[in-house]
Amino acid sequence: MTRIWRETGFVENDPWVIETEEVKATEDQKPLLPLDEMIARAEESNDVGLGVLIRPADDVRKLEPYLYRIEIVAVDFPAFNDGRAFSHASLLRDRLGYRNELRAVGDVLIDQVPLMLRCGIDSFSVKNATALKRLEEGRLPGIAEHYQPTARHAEKGEGYSWRRRTVTA
Amino acid sequence: MYRYDEFDHAFVSSRVEQFRDQVGRRLAGELAEDAFKPLRLMNGVYLQLHAYMLRVAIPYGTLNGKQMRMLAHIARKYDRGYGHFTTRQNIQYNWPKLSDTPDILAELASVEMHALQTSGNCIRNVTADHFAGAAADEVADPRPYAEILRQWSSVHPEFSFLPRKFKIAVTGAERDRAAIQVHDIGLHLKKNEEGEIGFAVYVGGGQGRTPMIAKKIKDFLPEEDLLSYTTAIMRVYNLHGRRDNKYKARIKILVHETGAEELARQVEEEFSHLQGTELKLPDADIQAIAAYFAPPALADRAEGWPQLAGWKKQDEAFARWVDQNVKPHKHPDYGMVTISLKPIGGIPGDASDVQMDAIADLAEEFAFDEIRISHEQNVILPHVALADLEPLYRALVAQNLATANAGLITDIIACPGLDYCALANARSIPLAQEISSRFGAAERQAEIGELKIKISGCINACGHHHVGHIGLLGVEKKGAELYQITLGGSGDENTSIGEIIGRGFEPNKVTDAVETIVDTYLGLRTSNEETFLEAYRRVGPQPFKEALYGDAKAEAA
User: Fold this and answer.
1) How confident is the model at residue A150 (pLDDT cuts 50, 70, 90)?
2) Parts of chain B belonging to CATH 3.90.480.20
């Protein structure tokens, strides 16, 4: 079973749905639209509160003119080892200044969650049993020391040794 | 050399505990092997033919005596009493138990070492010129930049699941001893007309089944932009590198398919956004790291000159060793010593625990506690006074570490091959041993001169056969091992990919074939000053084809 996790805990009654042939959003749900559909919808309407699904080969920069109308961006990890969504997330947060919900969908495993958090992903669609168990127990396998700036600041200070020394000097 | 501070210690300890947790989950069955695999790889743990293998990082090949002693200790306690130094300046152990690996990593952490990112589809150990900080021809020491790159790339959240592995090499001199043009990114430290330090940036070099020479995409990158520009390259590669076929996933294929000019444009576009951000390296920050790599205070030891001349006159073997294995240092009273890990008939790159301990002692006694590992699988003592060469040599002889063959035909690079590796098609080590024994006589090696033989047991080219003056590639044909020969490869500032000379040779014929090639060279060189590579570049493959196959057969091949 798929559950949505954020750092505040599991989210019940999440409305966002990735539509397929069989699955469609119901009245009280909302679709995560493919990039081109989202852009078409935005161009044709004044809708706000949109949701968009970024596939690995998409150019996330196309979202720039519409970001203020977007409530959630989902970035897709079709397999845990397809790391393109880490760059999508970094671009959204660092380059485009996107501040709303950013969700990882697809093959979301516990050992990748800390890296995703650091790239600015703050919402997780999780179905892996071990991942669910660890998240329920609040046991993330990340490390607190970071050697590079990322979308999210490190818990234990910025970690370049040259920067540390500049501070203490 | 670089010293860990509290932060670095905390980082490495956290990483060890993180891996201990992952190993625990794997052993408990909570973590599937396919999901565990990239995690263990990023901690240096491979699953090989007979056992797990642990590859320990030696960042840019630099270590001290205490660290070398730890490597010896690990060989003794957790392995079978030896380790294998690799072409990426690392060391690997062939027989550790998976359940021991967290403890091994914890022991390494106690001497500021780790196995981070020595494998996996991430940014690997950054390599550099093994004579860094000592070579007379150096523009600047490449190691501070390699260390900055090491830190920046450690557990980089955006670049830990790249399409494929990613290797960066840095050289600080015109003479390229780090083979930068066969790396994913090659950085050549240089000065511009104003005397400022920067880099020529090469991308897309590599060996493997599709060897390619890197393309220069930036003539001069100011040093302050090192991380922003590297991030730009990594991001373009992470987003656009091929993921549909692992054999086409390296950045060299992206460069090839996109075109170097278009790729450079994409990198520039990304760089335009990243330049001047938090990634900028101000001069004071670079100096803070560079200070760690300050050379030892080298007192004048001019008495070494007459002593050395005297020793050489008395002992022919010592003289040969000095001529071959000691190179000029920045300071005229010192030399850079190559300790050969290529004993005649031995296994290239292997060292026993006893030898490693001895090297640690000698580095402390004679070499300011500095040791390097070269990408040619030898050990370097970069600062030795000429006045200390004779006692050093005596001690090395006692450990079978004084083979006088640096750069000669028996200084062979070989991958582990079918004796260890799960990927190999053919054995590499026994062939290296046979060639070494065939050409082992000192006079014969000296007559042949500089000649680099490199052997890979499969198309993945870990033995760098593409850039061997003579390259030997093991292939499997109808269930039997066969060796293909390439000639004219080179991994220096004039990098070239060797050309296949003709059909392959059976294992029992290949050493004869190498001998035929060598004899052909000796017969056609203009003088004994003309090296094998120079001669090959002058005459081309034809005389060698004729010697190996005869006229008619050469055409058929």
Assistant:
1) confident
2) 6-109, 304-398
Q: Can you tell me which residue has the tokens 């210690």?
A: B9
Q: State yes or no: pLDDT of B478 exceeds 60.
A: yes
Give the residue from A55, A136, A140, A162 with the most B CB atoms within 10 Å of its CB, the best one to mutate: A162
Provide, as residue numbers in chain B, all residues whose Cβ is less than 8 Å from the Cβ of A159.
7, 11, 151
Distance between CA atoms of residues B391 and B410, nearest Å: 25
From chain B, the residues in CB contact with A90 under 8 A are 158, 235
Q: What is the chain A residue with the closest CA to B232?
A: A87
User: If you search the block for the tokens 């293998």, which residue do you land on?
Assistant: B53
CATH number of A3-141: 3.20.20.70
Name residues 124-163 of chain B within 8 A of A (Cβ): 148, 151-162
**For residue B5, what is the nearest residue in chain A, using CA coordinates?**
A161
Q: Which CATH class is domain B413-556?
A: alpha beta
Here the tokens at position B556 are 């058929």
SS3 B194: coil
Indicate the CATH number for domain B6-109. Answer: 3.90.480.20
pLDDT digits (tens, 9 = 90+) for A36-82: 999 999 999 999 999 999 999 999 999 999 999 999 999 999 999 99
B474 neighbors B417 (Cβ within 8 angstroms): yes
Q: Which of A95, A118, A164 sits opposite B5 (nearest CB)?
A: A164
Q: Quick one: fold of B304-398?
A: Sulfite Reductase Hemoprotein; domain 2 (3.90.480)
Instruction: Say whether domain B135-291 belongs to CATH 3.40.50.2000.
Output: no
Q: List every span in chain B annotated with CATH 3.30.413.10.
A: 135-291, 413-556
Amino acid type, B406: A
What are the helix (H) ranges across B400-541? 429-438, 442-448, 507-524, 532-539
ipTM, 2 dp: 0.95
- Measured between CA atoms, the residue of chain A closest to residue B234 is A87
